[in-house]
Amino acid sequence: MNRHQQPRKDEWLDRVRGEYGESPGLTLTLDEAKRLWGLDAAHCQDVLDALVETRFLKRTAHGAYARNEDHV
Q1: Is there a contact between 20 and 67 (Cβ–Cβ < 8 Å)?
Q2: Using H for helix, E for strand and C for coil, what is the string for 16-44?
Q3: Residue 27 CB coordination number (10 Å)
Q4: Residue 66 DSSP class
Q5: What are phi and psi of 46, to 5 degrees?
Q6: How far is the C-alpha of 28 from the C-alpha of 24, rounded, in Å?
Q7: Which residues contact 26 (CB under 8 A, 6 or more apart)?
Q8: pLDDT tens digit string along 10-63?
């Protein structure tokens, strides 16, 4: 992949799953996730929403994203 290509969505899904798997208790807001992964708001939201939809992540009461321990 050259430096101008963005990773595909499935690559981002794998990366985010890996980050949450390596960091138990990781909880990120959308803004924190955007900064951590260098994604724009729309792409970051799309990835996070997909992981919530599959129940890998859940939204906390404060709107952050955390690993859904019921899905482990």
Answers
A1: yes
A2: HHHHHHHCCCCEECHHHHHHHHCCCHHHH
A3: 15
A4: E
A5: -60, -45
A6: 12
A7: 19, 20, 66, 67
A8: 899 999 999 999 998 999 999 999 999 999 999 999 999 999 999 999 999 999
Question: Distance of CA 54 to CAs 5, 35, 38, Å?
Answer: 26, 23, 23
pTM: 0.85
Domains defined along the chain, listed by start: 9-18+26-66 (1.10.10)
The amino acid that residue 34 corresponds to is K
φ/ψ bin of 2: left (φ > 0), alpha (ψ from -120 to 50), beta (otherwise): beta
Q: Tokens for 30?
A: 């959308």
